[in-house]
Amino acid sequence: MSTEESSFTLGTAFRPDTIGDGAVRAMVGVLDAQDVAPSIERLRAWALAAGDVQPGEVCVDVGSGTGVMTRRLAALAGPDGQAIGLEPNEMLRAVATERAAAAGSTAEFRPGLATDIPLPDASVDLVWCERVLQHVPDPETAIREVARVLRPGGRALLLDSDHESRVESSIDPDVAREMLVAFLGQLANARSARDIPRLAMQAGLVVDPDIGSSALVYTQEELQDFELYRLSGDQAVAEGRITRAQADEAVRSMSEAARQGWAFSAITVFGFVCRKPGSGTVSS
Ligand SMILES: C[S@@+](CC[C@H](N)C(=O)[O-])C[C@H]1O[C@@H](n2cnc3c(N)ncnc32)[C@H](O)[C@@H]1O
Question: Which stretch is the leader sequence (predicted)?
């Protein structure tokens, strides 16, 4: 693992096996910025309400990142409950552990992959898995694992992005389309959200008909020299889809619009409430 790498590269971003320490630091900055985005908070609040965590329950946050949601689950589960953040990336686990301690949270963090959840069958009341499946090449196994660890009557809140829904205001549409295609090809599971209902049902879960959605809207600040567009442009050039000049112009025109304050770019994040049939309880 390189510690020199200081920014994301397409294809390695968020993959615990390939991402370098410098890129993890950059990722923490991105996640912190997104944590305060009102659009993300609206979806999280909706999902938390649907999940209805009770004091004493056992909650697991799969792919917990900086642990922000693990801490919220720990607060809801209370002193008699438990909130475990599963995070394969060691550096993110360290950040999450440090932040939980500083906040006086009981949230705990363990290594683990979505496709191999290190917990017994039927041992969890609630699973939270937010913007993780898009980075998992085998989401079918991951969702089967979620169903396995849930107790009958347990709930899974699966929130994920659909990158094909990306919109932007200030890039030539033909160029933007080529950049998006190049970007989609680099992600493990770019259209993740649209497969979740099928995979959850095939794993034996029941999906609530009310599906949540919210656009992750990038700020004007983020859109200046936006790395996502720079990387998408570089990839599209490498694939011969657009010219270098077109890629540079895409980043420049979006940056200029952001300086004027009217740039707009977003992707849709969907939320699915999945329930394991039956009833029971993990907590005593
Ligand atoms: C976009 S971040 C989301 C973090 C957090 N869930 C949030 O919403 O703030 C994606 C997270 O998924 C983790 N991740 C990537 N592949 C994973 C896998 N196979 N199993 C579990 N987590 C994974 C990454 O390390 C990272 O923490």
Answer: none
| Domain boundaries, position 150 | 21-164+188-216+268-275
Confidence label for 1 from pLDDT (cuts 50, 70 and 90): very low
16 Cβ inside 6 Å of ligand 1: yes
Write down the residue that tokens 């410098």 correspond to.
Answer: 22
What average pLDDT does range 250-273 have in this prediction?
A: 97
Q: Of ligand 1's atoms, which has the minimum distance to the CA of residue 31? A: 9
Q: What is the CATH number for 143?
A: 3.40.50.150
State residue 27's pLDDT score: 82
Task: Name which of 134, 164, 131, 132 is nearest 267 in CA terms.
Answer: 164
Number of domains present in the structure of the chain: 1
